[in-house]
Design brief:
CATH topology: YaeB-like fold
Strand content: 25-35%
Radius of gyration: 13 Å
Number of helices: 3
Largest sheet: 5 strands, mixed
CATH class: Alpha Beta
Helix content: 40-55%
CATH architecture: 2-Layer Sandwich
Distance between the termini: 25 Å
Length: about 100
């Protein structure tokens, strides 16, 4: 299945990289983004690997990746990554 990132998810990844590079190092930031990309591949290979979020919004899924939550939708021809959020964020307030 094809994987597509929303503009907000792309911004989330940039923010994650910026935060990581400022607090740790550019090398650490690159390594962390690579780990998130590995999680994207896992979702792509096994689309139902995440937890359903139907109690928040229909057809939404959540996959935990390191200290972040990947929120995604399973669509007919693709997987749509909605957001990549730190675990401290309340998903329901951000996704709705």
């Amino acid at each position: 299945m094809k994987l597509l990132l929303s503009p907000k998810a792309e911004d989330d990844l940039l923010d994650i990289w910026d935060f990581s590079s400022n607090w740790f190092s550019k090398t650490q930031a690159n390594t962390y983004i690579e780990k998130i990309n590995t999680c994207f591949v896992a979702i792509q290979d096994y689309p139902q690997i995440g937890k359903r979020l139907d109690f928040i919004k229909a057809h939404y899924w959540l996959y935990v990746c390191q200290k972040h939550h990947i929120v995604y939708q399973l669509q007919t021809e693709q997987i749509f990554i909605v957001r990549v959020l730190h675990q401290s964020n309340q998903i329901s307030k951000i996704v709705l």
